[in-house]
Automatic annotation (TrEMBL):
Residues 1-24 have a biased composition (Basic and acidic residues). Keywords: Hydrolase, Protease. One of its GO terms (molecular function) is peptidase activity. The keyword Hydrolase applies. This is ATP-dependent Clp protease proteolytic subunit. It comes from Candidatus Acetatifactor stercoripullorum.
Length: 237
């Protein structure tokens, strides 16, 4: 009996160690120690969303090549029943951000997002890609047009390409939340809010009033809503 107790203790220690290492290395975790016995995958989008180019070692980044396979694994898993996405991002690579947003939106399993410090720029499509979205009262969202780094070739085709990317972002956001295109473009092109730039900063309730985020709330509401969505999906099945 003593040996069985020791083995159980060692197993718990090993499990906790693996859990801590997973959080440290990927910022991801499976939440399963709840009354409902539901397995929820926790996905964090933190810092700058990294695309094809590696950012400096001092930058806090989310690598899309890590996120995409994980989302595919969530969809394929028999154990994972829902997805909780925590966002505190300044934005980043447009194509990478849209890829993540499209993957989340295409999941068949219930998903909820929670904007914490902020979800700026290309973080906006990711925030609205889930089935339901929350923002904390002090959370911010920066809405602005697409920006490009590096040399821009001044020919009509370049500007058409910019417009195409912008239309893709605008279309995705409008398809996945309650804001309409004209209001979203108005926020993007606002000149009186951001110094020396165009765009709008929305804080907490403002993001909800503009129809981008569903509700103001914290992790308690987000987790509770996800459990309810999972239960509802079970009952429908």
């Amino acid at each position: 009996m003593a040996q069985d107790g020791e083995k159980e203790k060692d197993g718990r220690i090993e499990e906790e160690k693996h859990r801590d290492e997973r959080i440290e290395q990927t910022g991801q975790l499976t939440l399963g120690e709840n009354e409902q016995k539901q397995n929820i995958h926790l996905l964090t989008i933190i810092g700058e969303i990294e695309g094809h180019d590696n950012l400096s070692g001092s930058s806090k980044t989310t690598k899309y090549e890590h996120i995409l396979p994980q989302l595919a694994a969530i969809e394929d898993s028999k154990e994972i029943q829902g997805l909780l996405v925590l966002l505190n991002t300044m934005g980043g690579d447009v194509e990478a951000g849209l890829a993540i947003a499209e993957m989340i939106a295409s999941l068949s399993k219930p998903s909820v997002s929670l904007v914490l410090g902020g979800s700026h720029s290309i973080g906006v499509p990711i925030a609205v890609s889930t089935d339901y979205s929350y923002i904390v009262p002090t959370g911010t969202m920066v809405i602005h047009p697409v920006r490009m780094n590096g040399m821009v070739i001044g020919v009509p085709q370049t500007f058409e390409y910019f417009k195409l990317i912008q239309d893709r972002i605008t279309g995705f956001v409008c398809d996945h939340c309650k804001i309409n295109k004209s209001r979203l473009e108005e926020l993007m092109l606002e000149t009186g809010v951001l110094t020396k730039d165009v765009g709008t900063i929305l804080v907490g309730e403002e993001a909800v009033k503009n129809g981008i985020i569903d509700e103001v709330g914290g992790v308690d509401k987000a987790v509770r809503r996800l459990h309810q969505m999972i239960e509802k999906r079970k009952s429908v099945k």
